[in-house]
Amino acid sequence: MASIGKNQQRTPDKTSSLDAMEQEIHNQVEDLPAFVRALGKYDRFRNPDPSSMIFTGSGDSLASSLFAHYLSQM
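Above: the chain sequence. Below: its structure as tokens.
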């Protein structure tokens, strides 16, 4: 039977899964403006037609809505 020894237990310097999730969401929000700028290099994304777009997500509603905002500002 496996057990967790003292050297394998969570320590304050290790990132918890919630901390990692928070950092990932923060990174998504920070990366969105650069992603939109990269899309702007393609003609079909320069003047997007909102009626032909569908936004979906898998729980990242904030990132999805910010992406739509940044894209609409192009």
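The chain is about 55% helix and 0% strand.
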